[in-house]
Specification:
By secondary structure, this protein is an alpha/beta fold. It has helices spanning 4-16, 37-44, 114-122, 142-156, 158-161, 175-185, 220-226, 235-240, 248-253, 281-290, 314-328, and strands spanning 52-53, 62-73, 76-85, 94-100, 126-130, 163-173, 207-211, 267-271, 295-299, 310-311. Residues 1-21 form the signal peptide.
């Protein structure tokens, strides 16, 4: 007899096979793209000798549906991986967390968030890790468009996978934290979502989690690093297609803090001990409070950037995400 997980996975994959019939092409591997857990571990081990790469092994109570195509531009396909708790109640849709990887807008892999996705699934959340077009392929705001398309795919497939379309959160780390924040706080603006014109399915979300990502590009602290003249170009400069002096309007437009308003999604900030990576966080939280919007902040002491890739820090981050989302997206029934 085939294992239950295999039967469940096979049935779901068969349902999805015909969604995109055109040829599907992904760019070849980029040898310069080294933002992953192993390379980061090698850089951090000397200063943090007790860290361990967090496991992405699939436990028996979680099912993974990999390589689902959520958007296609010509023959270029964008994919996501869906992690589902097998013990979810059949009568209540699962809340969802869509996870956006980091890498300075020009690098990284969706597998970065597989360990967090597994642990979220074990806590009753469906978790989705997404790939998006990096700056070398498509500059700002393509990544925002892609993430909004991923949210629409999730909501559009809610019935198929027993997801709750009323409880979808966006989360990300580093550049992914900024992307998730901007995509999340602009859910009311179709200019960040070209697909809105052709779909009745919303790409708005109900909560946002920004893990060590910028909230404001134009502060002195952010510009010191993101517009460093010694870098030609800097990571942000490559994404925007120019330095701050050349593309100041885009640098400002991409700052999530500019979109604080009553009724925006609540936000959890999880920060490392490296303050430069979360520039604008405190001011954004203050503006949200003035607008009557809930926010919460967790700063993990003595942590490097990219702490979510490693134990012992991943679990406290997951615990904070679950506690926050349980408050802000409570279930029905």
């Amino acid at each position: 007899m085939m294992p239950l997980r295999y039967i469940f996975s096979l049935a779901l994959v068969c349902l999805h096979t015909a969604a995109f019939a055109a040829p599907c092409v992904e760019p070849p591997p980029d040898p310069a793209n080294t933002y992953d857990a192993q390379h980061t571990y090698e850089k951090l081990l000397r200063d943090y000798p007790s860290i361990r790469i967090a496991s992405a092994a699939l436990p028996v109570d979680v099912n993974r549906l990999g390589d689902q195509v959520y958007a296609q531009y010509g023959d270029r396909c964008l994919k996501l991986d869906l992690y589902l708790p097998l013990a979810a109640r059949a009568d209540v849709g699962m809340p969802v967390v869509v996870l956006v990887h980091g890498g300075g807008w020009r690098a990284g892999f969706r597998a970065e968030f597989a360990p967090m996705a597994v642990r979220l699934a074990q806590r009753g959340y469906a978790a989705v890790t997404v790939s998006y077009r990096l700056s070398g392929e498509a500059p700002y705001p393509a990544a925002i468009h892609d993430v909004r398309a991923a949210v629409r795919w999730v909501r559009g497939h809610a019935g198929q996978y027993r997801l709750d379309p009323r409880r979808i959160a966006l989360a990300g780390g580093s550049a992914g934290g900024q992307i998730a924040s901007l995509a999340g706080v602009t859910g009311h603006l179709d200019r960040f979502d070209p697909g809105a014109a052709d779909s009745a399915v919303s790409s708005a979300v109900q909560a946002v989690v920004n893990i060590d990502g910028l909230s404001e590009f134009t502060t002195e602290a952010a510009l010191k690093y993101e517009d460093d003249p010694r870098k030609q170009p800097s990571a942000a400069g490559a994404w925007f297609g120019g330095r701050y002096a050349e593309k100041s309007a885009l640098w400002a437009e991409a700052s999530p803090i500019r979109y604080v308003r009553p009724g925006m999604p609540p936000m959890l900030f999880i920060a490392s001990a490296q303050a430069r990576f979360s520039a604008g966080r405190e001011e954004m939280a203050a503006r949200m409070a003035q607008a009557g919007v809930a926010s919460s902040t967790l700063v993990l002491p003595d942590t490097p950037h990219s702490f979510w890739l490693f134990d012992p820090w991943l679990q406290p981050a997951v615990d904070a995400v679950v506690a926050f989302l349980n408050r802000q997206m409570p279930g029905k029934g």
